[in-house]
């Protein structure tokens, strides 16, 4: 599918522990909603992935949240428990159990791909998603999560591709004119 975007991400700390590939696509449902799909593939990271956080604009309605993983078999020690999806005010977060609770929790381990999907009433814009690493870091400088830009439902009222609330504005005070009385209003030019 030519509309699927695939990006590579991986730790840049001292251990340089492997790579993940994140594929994603947003499709217009034709009814004012969009369908979002993400696939996270662990190419070769020992630390594995234990959570995925997709940002969502503050006023965005989200429905049909789904998750798909691999089925462990033939004596594999790993849990097959589906990840829990939590809808936060500004994100959807899928997560397995924490490593400190269950070392055999259903993390995205070497050579596996898990998929995540939902529908939302906002069009896609590029926003940073976070992959939470499952196993503890070996060095203090190693990251706890990885960031990759994906298409996600944001609020972008001025259609500039930047989510509202993430934009910076510049305010310049205009010189007072004769029509403004002393002690009058201040006028601002918002660029």
Radius of gyration: 21 Å
Termini Cα gap: 39 Å
Largest sheet: 5 strands, antiparallel
Please bin the fraction of helical residues: under 10%
Order of helices and strands: EEEEEEEEEEEE
- Mean pLDDT, all residues: 84
Strand percentage, roughly? 35-45%
Using DSSP, what is the number of strands?
12
DSSP summary: helix tally: 0
Low-pLDDT stretches are 168-191
Strand order, biggest sheet? Answer: 1-2-3-8-5
Give the overall shape. Answer: globular
Structural class: mainly beta
Q: Can you walk me through this structure?
A:
With 191 residues, this protein is mostly beta strands. 0% of the residues lie in helices and 42% in strands. It is built from no helices and twelve strands. The protein has strands at residues 5-9, 20-28, 34-42, 49-55, 62-68, 84-88, 91-95, 113-120, 124-133, 145-153, 171-173, 188-190. The protein is globular, with a radius of gyration of 21 Å. Mean pLDDT is 84; it is low at 168-191.
Quick recap:
The chain has 191 residues and is mostly beta strands. It has strands spanning 5-9, 20-28, 34-42, 49-55, 62-68, 84-88, 91-95, 113-120, 124-133, 145-153, 171-173, 188-190. 26% of the residues are buried.
Chain-wise SSE layout:
Layout: E1 5-9, E2 20-28, E3 34-42, E4 49-55, E5 62-68, E6 84-88, E7 91-95, E8 113-120, E9 124-133, E10 145-153, E11 171-173, E12 188-190
Antiparallel strand pairs: 1-2, 2-3, 3-8, 4-7, 4-9, 5-8, 6-7, 9-10, 11-12
Features of the shown structure:
191 residues, mainly beta, five-stranded antiparallel β-sheet, globular
């Amino acid at each position: 599918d030519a509309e699927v975007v695939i990006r590579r991400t991986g730790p840049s700390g001292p251990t340089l522990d492997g790579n993940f590939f994140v594929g994603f696509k947003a499709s217009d449902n034709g009814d004012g909603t969009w369908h979002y799909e993400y696939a996270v593939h662990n190419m070769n990271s020992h630390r594995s992935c234990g959570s995925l956080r997709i940002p969502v604009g503050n006023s965005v309605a989200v429905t049909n949240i789904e998750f798909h993983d691999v089925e462990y078999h033939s004596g594999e020690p790993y849990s097959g428990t589906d990840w829990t999806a939590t809808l936060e005010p500004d994100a959807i977060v899928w997560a397995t159990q924490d490593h400190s609770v269950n070392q055999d929790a259903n993390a995205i381990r070497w050579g596996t791909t898990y998929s995540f999907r939902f529908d939302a009433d906002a069009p896609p814009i590029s926003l940073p998603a976070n992959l939470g690493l499952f196993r503890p870091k070996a060095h203090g400088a190693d990251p706890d999560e990885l960031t990759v830009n994906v298409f996600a439902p944001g609020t972008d009222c001025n259609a500039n591709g930047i989510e509202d609330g993430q934009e910076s504005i510049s305010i310049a005070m205009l010189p007072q004119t004769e029509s403004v009385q002393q002690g009058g209003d201040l006028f601002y030019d918002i660029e």
